[in-house]
Design goal:
The chain is an alpha/beta fold. The protein has a single domain, classed as Carbamate kinase (3-Layer(aba) Sandwich). Helices cover 43% and strands 16% of the residues. It is built from nine helices and seven strands; from the N terminus they run E-H-H-E-H-H-H-E-H-E-E-H-H-E-H-E. Strands 3-2-1-4-6-7-5 form a seven-stranded mixed sheet, with helices on both faces. The protein is globular. Bound molecules: uridine 5'-triphosphate. Uridine 5'-triphosphate binds next to helix 1, helix 3, helix 4 and helix 6.
Length: 224
């Protein structure tokens, strides 16, 4: 059976207004999808993770400690989904190898080790299982020419090459809580493993469905 890896940004799950209807829709969507595919979801930490990281930074904790705060929050977010879904793993795996040992159609996890974001965990997993698709579900409609949360004239890119992304973001990890579209360590893996990667708005489940069904979708294709 084909496997799909979805990196689900924490900001999609938890924003200022907690949207419980989205959780219900997502649960239904994932259950249906898991009848056809093996699905791995890596949940991010979002604003909550950044709040803890910012506090820790003000208290002069080192970067590795700040990353562990972020990881812990991603696992709490993952736990919300496992509790809701009922059909996935119960224990949150702490590494991609542990995730691969779980014999369920739906596997949910958060971060693993310091030094990267959950996107990199998704890329690592996608490489290990030779995933059919890697989808980065974030809080905007794909990759833009500049940050759409800051600039109202930012333009959505229908596609972007991995080289262009690497030119812009490099391949190294910068700092805990850094809010960028895809972190450097993920780009390195995607380039190496040539994983078909798509970026879209995780709130728009209909777009997620289109990408999975190989239809035109509102988002960005990363050309590898
Ligand atoms: P996220 O992956 O959520 O970062 O992890 P993000 O890109 O800010 O994600 P979203 O889209 O808003 O959710 C939050 C922080 O946790 C640490 C990093 O510091 C990261 O910035 N982290 C996460 C790790 O160190 N390792 C991991 O495997 C995951």
């Amino acid at each position: 059976m084909n496997s799909i890896v979805i990196s689900l940004g924490g900001s999609v799950l938890i924003s200022d207004d907690v949207d419980s209807t989205y959780f219900q829709k997502l649960t239904k969507f994932l259950k249906e999808l898991s009848e056809q595919y093996k699905i791995y979801i890596i949940v991010g930490g979002g604003k909550t993770a950044r709040t803890y990281i910012n506090l820790g930074r003000k208290l002069n904790f080192n970067e590795e400690t700040l990353d562990t705060f972020g990881i812990d929050i991603t696992r709490v977010n993952a736990r919300i989904l496992t509790n809701l879904l009922n059909i996935s793993n119960e224990k949150i795996p702490e590494s991609t190898d542990e995730a691969l040992e779980i014999n369920k159609q739906l596997v949910i996890m958060g971060g693993t080790t310091p030094g990267h974001s959950t996107d990199m965990v998704g890329a690592e997993l996608a490489e290990k299982i030779d995933a059919k698709k890697f989808i980065i579900a974030t809080n905007v409609d794909g990759v833009y020419d500049k940050d759409p949360n800051k600039y109202s004239d930012a333009k959505q890119l229908k596609e972007i090459s991995i080289e262009k992304l690497i030119d812009e973001y490099g391949t190294e990890w910068s700092s805990a809580g850094k809010n960028i579209v895809i972190d450097g360590p993920s780009l390195k893996i995607l380039k190496r493993a040539k994983i078909p990667t798509y970026v879209l708005n995780g709130k728009k489940l209909e777009e997620l469905k289109k990408v999975i069904n190989n239809e035109d979708f509102n988002g960005t294709i990363i050309k590898i």
